[in-house]
Structure formats: structure tokens, C-alpha cells
Design goal:
Number of strands of chain A: 15
Largest interface: A-B, 64 and 43 residues
Order of helices and strands of chain B: HHEHEE
Distance between the termini of chain A: 75 Å
Strand content of chain B: 5-15%
Number of helices of chain B: 3
Structural class of chain A: alpha+beta
Structural class of chain B: mainly alpha
Oligomer: heterodimer
Largest sheet of chain A: 9 strands, mixed
Radius of gyration of chain B: 22 Å
């Protein structure tokens, strides 16, 4: 549905109550895969990080990665879940070449974690509690590339190419219960929920949590029902939502689309929908049908997971601070105003700023770079700020400014170099020759030249009209091609003028 | 008497991508029916207090250390593949989507 045909968002909420539900997949950053000793690394040469287990070759048997189980328990505890005294794996049977076995090893009736809740903070500081139904362990699937057809999409494709490097990567799928009462906050809550899950897994250190790389993926379920109606409306499940911004937009779009259909007397089809980042719309995927009959049964090749009470308590004791408590602490430690802190949080930059401060930058400098230049570039390129540059590089950049080696203008150029993959800030400075001219001799020579060219300025400064120095400073900065510390130039100009 | 119908057998065969003739569907319906009847006998003694058994062997918590091991080369991985393109498997385009 084109955007012009959508019902106005406010009107949609007057007529209907949105009910949300999320399935978030988190890729764990263990060294090896869930059930095989293949390195947990993909993106390189296809089909290099695989073993017979990942290909489902005859005679191969899966063995559970103990670290992945511990990570899953930690995540379950951080989500306020109960940990199952005994859980088991199950086979989810389907025929699609993204897994070579014709089934995915998942968990079905006995997930490792169940019945929890997550407190999600909205931009204005209100807290919304999202109920968690379960978190279960499973394996990721391989990557298909469709060849032929106009757009590289499945429609019209002649054949598909398969890379199993990602097959078997450990996943935890977090499933919420239906979320009621979000009302007009639904799109924002969707974004804040995924951001909270991201903060939790980053704090636990169990996932790289880079949405643009698919480490964290969100399927958003949306349904509408008339106000006061008990029965839930038919839901759609929007997939391929790969940034925080998209999660918010996709939920808003689905609310408007469904409202328009229902108001026109139509019915919502229960189906998966694909989110299109470029147009900001969703399109129909496959309808829920027979293909959803996955014939789950207990995985006969794997034994039950029965974590001891000691292990659970050990992992519980090692849990990091919950995100909400952490936010309160950081705000105080950083000395940010409410507005400054909310800006950082709403932009989803809390983790980035915190990591940058940990790497040695002052809180204000970290905030300034992330909320300023880095966000500006991210917006222009329509990507997440966190995907552009590592916090350690931002801290290194700030250190170069603090030491006087760079001024802000040069630092912005260095930042661009870092973002474009030219190396660390110091490497970019060296390669591009961007350091500030800190040699006073060179500055003084340029100042004397500028003073000689503008004799009236000298007289004015001597008369006490210090602001006249601006013209000379400007000339010197120009001569230095901007690679000078303006404050230092000003000092030197005043010194030279009084010495004359 | 079991509730297995020919429609269920045909549905299962379709899900499992097994082509069955009408005769096979008919005989499987009665065979599966008697299997279900036999299994139902077990339910008569299995009270709700008896937990379901997914493994006959009393073992649990068999884990592997998170240490990388040997991997296949792309050549080895592709050796049994009907078709490939570079180091990727080449498969018929199947209308569907990733799970």
C-alpha cells in the first residue's frame, strides 16, 4: 500500500488498539558454532567455516556448545525469566536449502528460559514493562543468494547459491507475550524494546549485537482490534527489520496499513510481511499455511540440558547491572543534564558513549562526537551511527584533540578517514598529514606576515581593541590551511602585538 | 480404533516430500492406524505424573568446550554437491523464504 493511501496514524489509534509482539533473534558471539567446532565467523570466503555437522552429512553428530548454554542462561536471567530445570532440543522440519539437514535444531516445548519481563524506558522517561514468554536456543541458517530475475530477489530467480558459513551459528530467540496498552507509543516502544535487548546482550558481552550485520534481528507482530473488543485481531509478522529506526517505522506503517484495510471493511490476512527500507513500506510475504506444520519432535541426537542450581546462581551473581539502573548511574557519573542524557539515549548511543568514556574520553567530548558529527554522517548515509566507527577510535580522536594535535575541523576530516576505512585516527593523521601546526616558529612567521600586511590592525590592538586581532587570526588560519590551533594563534598574535 | 485418515497421510506425505500412490496411502493409513492404537495402550498407564521420555539413556548435560576444530575445505564441502558455482552450492530456486 502506497504511503498516501495509509490511514493517518492518529486516526488509526482513535479507531483501534494496536497489540504488539516481538521475536528477536540474537546471535551469540561464542568462538564456535552451536553444535559443531566450526568457527563462529561468517562473511568471508563461502563454505570455509563448516564441518560435516553443519552440512548434515551422514554419520555426523551434533554436540552442544557449553558456552552457548551458559550465555543463554545468562540472557534468560537478565530477561527476568525462570530457567528450566530441564530443557531439550527439538527438530523443526522444513525443506528449504538454507539448512542442509532439512531441519533446524531448535527448542519447542521445553525452552531453556520462560516467563520473564523487561522494563523498557521511553524517551520521556516513562517505563513500560514488556512481558517475555520464552527464550530458546537454536541454530542460525545459511545464506542464500538468488541469481537471475531483475532485482536479485526470489521472485523470478533462476537459481540460488548457498553459503553455509552462518549455518549453525548459536542463536537465542526471545519471544514476547502479546503487548497491550502501548497505544500511540507502539512504534516508539518497539524501537525502545529492541534497543533494550541490544543493551542487555552488549552488557552481558554475549553478542556483537550489530543489527546491520544481522547479529540482532527483529520480527515485529502487529494486530489491531477495535477499542473495547476482547478478541485479538489478525496479526501480521514483519521480517527483515534491520535497524532500530526501521523497527519503529515498520510498526507505524503496519498500524496505518491495517487500520485503512479494516476501516474499508476489509480483512487482514495472517501472513509474513517484508519490510523495505528504501520505500518505508511492507509487502506481502508468504501466507501462513501448511508450510507452518513443522512436525517438531525431540532431537534424538542431543541430550537434555539440566543446569544445576549452582550454575544458575553463579551466572545470576555475575549478571551486569540492569540497563535502567545503569542508565541512572551513568547519567549521574557523566553529569549530563536530562536533555543531554535523553538525546544520547533516544539516539540509541548510550552504549557507544559509555564505551568511548571507558576508552578514556571525557563524557562531554564523547557525547559531542556521537550526537554531533557521527550522527550527522550516519543520517546522511542512512545507517546506524554505531556501524560507522568504533568507540575506541572516537576516544583516540578526542585524545588527539585534547593533546592539541588536532583542532575540531581537522578532527572531522580524520573522522571521515576512519569511517572510510583508512585506519585508526593516528594512521589517518599520518597518512593525510592532518596534524595541527604546533610549531610556534611557523605560526609566528605567518603572524608577522599577516601583521605586516595589515598595519592598521596592529595599531588597533595596541589601542586595546583586542577584537581586531580576528582579522589577523583569520589570515593566519588561512595561511596554515586550517591546520592550526586558533586559540594558540590568538595568544601569539596578542603577544607579538604587545612586544612590538 | 484410530482416527488416522487418508487425508492426514496424504498431508504428511506432502510435508515430507514423499510421493505416494493412492494404494500406498490406503495401506499406510491402516498401518499407521494400528501403530497409533498400540501407542495408545502406553497412554493408558502413563499418568500425568510420569514425565515424557525423550531419551532412553539416562544421560544429560553433555557439552563441548568452545574451542574451534578442523573445518572442511570448500572443495571437500562441495564434493558431494550435485552442482556448485565457485565455492557455493547451487540449488534450484525454491519459492519460499529463509526461516
Amino acid at each position: 500500500m502506497a504511503k498516501a493511501q495509509l490511514m493517518d496514524f492518529d486516526k488509526a489509534l482513535e479507531l483501534f488498539e494496536p497489540v504488539l509482539g516481538f521475536e528477536v533473534h540474537v546471535e551469540l558471539n561464542t568462538r564456535t558454532k552451536m553444535f559443531s567446532t566450526a568457527p563462529n565467523f561468517f562473511g568471508g570466503e563461502p563454505n570455509t567455516n563448516i564441518t560435516p555437522v553443519d552440512l548434515g552429512l551422514p554419520g555426523s553428530l551434533p554436540v552442544v556448545n557449553g558456552q552457548a548454554v551458559r550465555y543463554s542462561i545468562s540472557l534468560g536471567l537478565a530477561l527476568g525469566c525462570s530457567i528450566a530445570p530441564s530443557s531439550r532440543f527439538a527438530r523443526k522440519n522444513y525443506f528449504y536449502p538454507d539448512l542442509a539437514k532439512n531441519y533446524q535444531i531448535s527448542q519447542y516445548d521445553e525452552p531453556i528460559a520462560f516467563e520473564g519481563s523487561v522494563d523498557v524506558e521511553l524517551a520521556d522517561g516513562r517505563t513500560f514493562t514488556v512481558p517475555i514468554e520464552r527464550a530458546h536456543m537454536e541454530e542460525d541458517a545459511g545464506k542464500l543468494t538468488h541469481v537471475g530475475g531483475a532485482t536479485g530477489r526470489i521472485q523470478g530467480a533462476e537459481y540460488s547459491l548457498v553459503d553455509y558459513n552462518r549455518a549453525g551459528v548459536p542463536l537465542v530467540e526471545i519471544v514476547t507475550k502479546p503487548i497491550y496498552g502501548a497505544g500511540a507509543d507502539a512504534p516508539e516502544l518497539a524501537k525502545a524494546y529492541v534497543a533494550t535487548i541490544r543493551d542487555i546482550v552488549v552488557a552481558l558481552g554475549i553478542s556483537d549485537a550489530r543489527m546491520e550485520r544481522g547479529n540482532l534481528r527483529c520480527d515485529a507482530n502487529v494486530s489491531l482490534r477495535p477499542h473495547g473488543q476482547e478478541k485479538l485481531g489478525t496479526r501480521t509478522e514483519t521480517k527483515n527489520v534491520n535497524s532500530l529506526r526501521s523497527v519503529e517505522r515498520a510498526v507505524r506503517y503496519e498500524i496505518q496499513r491495517q487500520a485503512q484495510i479494516l476501516a474499508d471493511g476489509g480483512t487482514i490476512i495472517q501472513e509474513t510481511r517484508h519490510w523495505h527500507e528504501d520505500t518505508g513500506t511492507t509487502s506481502a510475504g508468504r501466507p501462513k499455511s501448511d508450510a507452518d506444520d513443522y512436525r517438531y519432535f525431540p532431537e534424538p541426537d542431543l541430550l537434555p540440558v539440566v543446569p544445576s542450581a549452582e550454575l544458575i546462581e553463579e551466572l545470576r551473581a555475575a549478571l551486569p547491572e540492569p540497563p535502567a539502573a545503569r542508565r541512572r548511574r551513568l547519567k549521574q557519573e557523566w553529569g549530563f543534564t536530562d536533555l543531554e542524557f535523553q538525546d544520547v539515549q533516544n539516539a540509541g548511543l548510550l552504549v557507544e558513549v559509555a564505551s568511548t568514556v571507558e576508552a578514556g574520553a571525557s563524557p562531554q567530548a564523547a557525547r559531542k562526537w556521537w550526537s554531533g558529527e557521527i550522527s550527522r554522517i550516519a543520517n546522511a548515509r542512512e545507517v546506524e551511527a554505531s556501524s560507522l566507527v568504533a568507540p575506541a577510535d572516537v576516544a583516540a580522536l578526542v585524545a588527539l584533540i585534547d593533546s592539541g594535535a588536532l583542532n575540531d575541523r581537522l578532527a572531522r576530516q580524520v573522522l571521515e578517514g576512519v569511517i572510510d576505512g583508512e585506519g585508526s585516527p593516528q594512521e589517518v593523521v599520518d597518512a593525510r598529514g592532518l596534524a595541527v601546526v604546533s610549531d610556534d616558529g611557523a605560526l609566528i612567521a605567518a603572524i608577522d606576515e599577516a601583521l605586516a600586511a595589515q598595519p592598521d590592525v596592529l595599531a588597533k590592538i595596541k589601542d586595546g581593541k583586542v577584537q581586531a586581532a580576528g582579522a589577523v587570526i583569520g589570515a593566519v588560519m588561512k595561511a596554515m590551511k586550517g591546520q592550526a590551533d586558533a586559540a594558540r594563534v590568538r595568544e601569539l598574535v596578542l603577544e607579538r602585538a604587545s612586544a612590538e | 480404533m484410530s482416527e488416522i485418515t487418508q487425508e492426514q497421510v496424504a498431508h504428511l506425505a506432502n510435508l515430507a516430500r514423499i510421493a505416494l500412490t493412492p494404494q500406498e496411502i490406503e495401506s499406510l493409513t491402516s498401518e499407521l492406524g494400528s501403530i497409533v492404537d498400540n501407542v495408545a495402550k502406553v497412554s493408558e498407564v502413563a499418568t500425568p505424573e510420569v514425565p515424557a521420555t525423550s531419551h532412553p539413556i539416562p544421560l544429560q548435560n553433555v557439552y563441548r568446550d568452545d574451542v574451534p576444530g578442523e573445518t572442511l575445505t570448500p572443495e571437500q564441502a562441495l564434493a558431494g554437491a550435485p552442482d556448485h558455482d565457485g565455492s557455493r552450492f547451487r540449488v534450484t530456486a525454491i519459492l519460499g523464504e529463509e526461516q
